[in-house]
Design goal:
ABC transporter involved in vitamin B12 uptake, BtuC, 12 helices, 0% strand, globular
Length: 260
Amino acid sequence: MLDDFMTRAALAGVGLAVAAAPLGSFVVWRRMAYFGDATAHAAILGVALSLALQISIFTGALAVALAMALTVSLLTGRGHAMDTLLGVLAHSALAFGLVAVSFLSGIRIDLMAYLFGDILSVSRADLGVIWTGAALVAGLIGWRWSALLTATLSEDLAYASGIDPRREQLILTLALAITVAVAIKVVGVLLIAAMLIIPAAAARPLSRTPEQMALTAAGIGAVSAVAGLWGAYALDAPAGPSIVCVAALVFVTTSLLKRA
């Protein structure tokens, strides 16, 4: 079954949805959209380092994404507005990554595949990496679910409950870095933030509890992946952007239902 490239692509998309849904819910609740964007943009620098050092793309992207996320966390509140800091770091990391890729001699690289994803070329090994990363993120979020919810609701309430909000922030940072690393093959660095935010935002009007929102977001993400692949195949369109387009249409639909 896994010899069929469309089957592998669909499994990769569903794996990304499993990783991104619970994390995306926290990104929406904490209003961390730019945070996810900055971390994703840094991944292209990780790709360049991976190719230069001849290590796996996952390892390089994970290391650089984690470094970027930690840098943002440490610099927050130290004299710079959050949106300004994230804007500077996101675009700077992307620019440095693109320049670094241009200096790689003797290495053939399809830059568009890393910017917008190449889900149709996912291999069995890639599937293993994606689903292992998805399991790690889901397990990490599930393990700290109550503490993360408390810290998201109120830092004062977290301290009163014996929970360190900074520690929970670091856990989210680690989960975000893993998600970026596994998603780069599926939707690329420019669309990772969209798959984090849009399914969670689409699930919000349909949900009454945090748990229901996370599960609904996972379902929307999975449906968007499969439907986007089908649409890309039928219309001969790029697969990664098609997946995001379907997710966006679901968001518009749930928003209109909420208003109605």
